[in-house]
Amino acid sequence: MKSFYIETFGCQMNVHDSEKVIGTLVARGYRQVETPEEAELVLYNTCSIRDKAEQKVFSRLSQFKRSGNGKVFGVLGCVAQQEGERIFEKAPHVGLVCGSASYNRLPELLVQIENGGRKVTGLDLDTDDTFETPLTRRDNPHRAFITIIEGCDKSCAYCVVPYTRGPERSRTSASVMEEARQLALVGYTEVQLLGQNVNSYRDPSPSAWDFATLLARIAEIPGLHRVRFTTSHPRDFGKEIVDAIDANPVLCDQVHLPVQSGSTQVLGRMQRLYTRDEYMRRIEWMKSARRSIAISTDIIVGFPGETEADFEQTLSLLDEVEYDSIFSFKYSPRPNTPALRLVGQVPEEEKGRRLTIVQEKQRAIQIRRNTRVVGSVQEVLVEGYNRATCQWIGRTSQNRVLNFTHSNGDGKSLLGGYLPVRVTRAGPNSLAGESVL
Ligand code: SAH
Ligand code: SF4
Ligand code: F3S
Fold first, then answer.
1. Report field, pTM of the whole predicted structure over 0.90
2. Correct CATH for 377-435 of 2.40.30.10, 2.40.50.140, 1.10.1040.10, 3.40.50.2300
3. Quick one: which atom of ligand 2 is closest to the CA of 155?
């Protein structure tokens, strides 16, 4: 068995985990193929943050119930950890179930499978290690993910992550710095630091750097042009992070700070550990920074007990902050989470109504915000080319997509380069412009 196919669902942590899994497999002589039909080993790296995400893997697996003969199916990631051996009952053709806290054991689990092992599992959560490998196969030639912290020690009432990714574990600063330096040496110019809660990063080695120190040091690495990070938890988000962004333009002027709700009562029931006012204090730090920091967030509508008045607080928060972008979701009841026991579940239809209102409001805010940058010149990292529109696709430091034309192009590829672009038009989700070189 030497060919494998992998499909990844979920967040950037999962995307990056898959890059590490792919590297591990390739180093053992496996070849990655483009379709599950061609593969002998079919892997799904799964997400269980909402019910819809979880259902995707079972619908994939059911497609192969009959035609899966001879293939080994593996379920990785958060559904694997959450459902464990129950997956073998739901889908008997699955041969491997492994959660992210056990990926260090993958080479050993692969040997078991190669030797004909069935129902192979890696489900321990109490590992101290993070999954690091020099074999990582990065998918993007310019922008690289770096995990700095795994797991989560918070206990938001709606969330499965503490159960699926285990307790918080930080990597040593020396190993993070080394990986960032190596990436710069081989030509990466942008790195994105990953963790479920990067703000609680704490270097386990004696130097004991906190997150802001790590950020500042990475931004000094020669060759790196952009450093981003995600996700920030408001409770642990300190002013020193804003100061670090102000002090070094290599740190992108972009922060994702999930609020979830604008109502202090709902935040309390969610066990988010901050009030609306405390959250707004963090927004004020960013708004009064010297640089113009783009702010994005996550919103959940229809959390148990969310009244119309609570919901209106979320709408007023959107107006007050004027986010550059948001991700918004209907509350989805998740196994084992404390919110399951809360009274006042909101009907699906009402959640849908609230979600539409949030999204329409935010769309208007984004058009307004994006229109304000028309006429300005922004530096973009060129990430692609759209043949249909004959436009290059760039990304600004604030993480906006800026599609642009380049007239003195003499046909040369701009991919991976940085150049100044004048913004000429604005839509709700992207900007358009022309290069000024
Ligand atoms: N660690 C990150 C969250 C990762 S999950 C943080 O704390 O910000 C990404 C987002 O999914 C969350 O911010 C939340 O908005 C949403 N989410 C998590 N659990 C959910 C659930 N049960 N129902 C709906 N949305 C959920
Ligand atoms: Fe989930 Fe909360 Fe942890 Fe984020 S901080 S991963 S929402 S428990
Ligand atoms: Fe999903 Fe797990 Fe990420 S539940 S959002 S893949 S941490």
1. yes
2. 2.40.50.140
3. 8
